[in-house]
Amino acid sequence: MGMVEGLWEAREMPLRDGLYRPDDTGLELHVDGPGAYHPDAGQPIPFRIGGPFDVAEAIEEHGVDGVDTNFESPLPNGSGWMSGGGGGMGNIGYLARLNADGSLLWVAVMFHSNPFIRVHYEGMSAVFTNDWGNRLMLDLVSPALR
Hints:
2 helices
């Protein structure tokens, strides 16, 4: 079992923005999240996937935090689940895609997104809402998110 998978099973996640996979590979995430009283609250959340990074180094440097799950929702095509929530002091959000058997496919950790509280689907796109009312839409059939 890899580090990422072990953390997930212990209900923990790395504390660095990133898209983490159970094989201990990671891709940088660039996510800006405005605060509740920011003029941009209630708007779409920018979400950009970058290049690979060293997961072990990220965990060593930034540590880990507990996962607080707010929802688990079956995917429309029955291929698995989406999980979402947060952690930390209220500023951290996470989204995780799980296989049909509940095993981790990936977890996305976003330090400034705030916790995600719900999801709805538009085909195989998922629209997530955080506790500020900001929305994040992800195409779940894009290569990086499968």
